[in-house]
Structure prediction request, 223 residues.
Amino acid sequence: FPYTTLFRSSYRRSTLRNCVIGDDCLIEDVSCINTTPDASFGEGCVISVLNEVGDGNVMIFDGLNSQLAALMVKYEQDREFTDIVRRLITKDIADHSLAVTTIGNNVRITATHDITNCHISDGCIIDGALRLRDCTLKSIPSAAVTIGVGVICLNSVIYNGSSITNATKIENCFVGEACKIADGFTAETSLFFANCYMSNGEACAAFCGPFSASHHKSSLLNS
Prediction:
């Protein structure tokens, strides 16, 4: 590349480079949507969970679940197991990932500063975000991913039905189905599985199983 493919969609006051955009999308007031040669789309990153100073034990990818993540953490000292799992994940990523930024059908992106190296699935809503870089947003029409005002998402995978809003910042994270992360929450190298609710506080190297919740400015979720 470079190339850009735009189907039956409309865009205004936006710059598009190296991306494929589906049908019936609205892209308006977006500074730049782009792909760079080193794109990872949030997949393949190895993060240290439950051990902030570790060498890394969980590989983030589109398909991660809490059971697999728990096995990767529990058996991180088993090098043979870890190598096999990482080879399988790397192969899966290579088999399904495309080389350029993709935006599915019926996506709305407005008043957003920067989208670089992202796979954005059908029905996603991005309104007022500051930066999305190397992310996969696994939205579906019946359960859209919503990214709101002031949000920064870096090197992360976010699943259907989840909302990241109100100046939240996440980096090197996996966010499962129907999670809500809001109100200035910051998260780094953490896992949030289905139906988590996080607000105001922060998380570092946290493993948050389904239905975990935190709503305190002074809380720090970690190992």
